[in-house]
Specification:
Elements (H helix, E strand, L loop, with lengths): L7 H7 L8 H4 L4 H6 L1 H4 L6 H11 L13 H7 L8 H4 L9 H16 L1 H8 L3 H18 L17 H6 L7 H5 L3 H13 L5 H15 L7 H7 L8 H6 L5 H8 L6 H15 L8 H7 L16 H4 L1
């Protein structure tokens, strides 16, 4: 296989392993076979080098030609492979093709692949550089085509998304100004999706917390249902605000306990807030509450550990 064309027969004989041959072999795949079988090939797992090769192949005359000539039908065929293109090529796609509906279909296709049995295994083995690279491409593409990124000017606020838009794409792919400009109803309906997104930066989470307070009021006024939906936004509570949360609901405690980015100071306050809300001491905590605390258990003082009920702890 080291010489000549990587034929369709050879590709088929390898199945999913065809994506793991040496780059020098992969680049010689029959272009006719590639175009005819792209629906199946899209299901496979490709590393960074293979993605770059695919991006080059997609733009060759023997496949789909220059990106500037792509049509709606071309995008239907290329589908999630469009996220492999470099930003310079992405900009050449006709803006008339990249509607909100098209963007939603592309994001959904990528998400469906990531949730498939093969895609999920593939994603588990990605390093952070690859994951960050995919997110950067998705964010750039959405903001560029939906007008959030100005050309030669400062970024400007464009489309204010609906909750449906946000759910169909990726919350963090939108400019945070767009999210905080959503109506109260749309933002509330999407709060959980926004809170679970791992890509928001601390500064963005602070702005999102401001929107939460604008809609629901101060920390002391938040219901257990709202607390459950906050996700990483909750990390922007001050220590004083954490102390004022109503944390006598196991589901709310569980939601906060899943967050792994608390500071040590926040963990101590969170643990104390749970005890204060439930009117319990460390020795009173049963197994369900201990499990619900999750990372929050790290807020316990070393001196308090011996007082914990050993049966419940076990």
């Amino acid at each position: 296989m080291s010489d000549g064309v990587f034929t369709g027969e050879e590709f088929d004989s390898l199945g999913a392993m065809a994506a793991f041959v040496m780059d020098e072999i992969f680049i010689n795949i029959s272009r006719f076979f590639f175009v005819e079988n792209i629906d199946r090939i899209r299901n496979y797992c490709f590393n960074k080098n293979k993605k770059d090769i695919l991006a080059m192949m997609l733009q060759e005359k023997a496949t789909f030609g220059p990106v500037s000539n792509w049509t709606s039908e071309t995008l239907d065929q290329v589908d999630r492979f469009v996220f492999f293109l470099p930003s310079t090529s992405v900009k050449q796609i006709s803006k008339s093709l990249m509607t909100v509906e098209r963007m939603e279909r592309l994001f959904q296709s990528q998400r469906q692949w990531e949730k498939s049995a093969f895609g999920a295994i593939c994603e588990q083995n990605r390093d952070m550089t690859e994951l960050d690279g995919m997110f950067a491409t998705q964010q750039f593409m959405l903001q560029y085509f939906l007008g959030v990124l100005g050309i030669g000017v400062l970024p400007k606020l464009a489309l204010v998304p609906s909750c449906s838009n946000v759910r169909a794409t990726l919350p963090s792919a939108w400019a945070v100004d767009s999210l905080t400009s959503m109506s109260a109803d749309h933002f509330s309906n999407c709060l959980e999706a926004i809170g679970q997104d791992p890509n928001f930066q601390p500064g963005e989470l602070t702005l999102l917390m401001g929107k939460v307070k604008q809609i629901y009021g101060p920390a002391s006024a938040l219901t257990p249902t709202v607390i459950q939906q906050l996700g990483r936004i909750a990390t922007q509570f001050t220590s004083d605000e954490l102390q004022k949360l109503k944390l006598n609901d196991l589901a709310a405690i569980t939601a906060l306990g899943r967050i792994k980015t608390w500071t040590s100071r926040q963990l101590s306050v969170l643990y104390a807030a749970v005890l204060n809300s439930t009117k319990l001491t460390g020795s009173d905590l049963d197994a369900s509450t201990l499990v619900a605390l999750g990372y929050g258990i790290c807020g316990i003082k070393a001196s308090e550990i011996p007082a914990m009920n050993p049966v419940e702890f076990r």
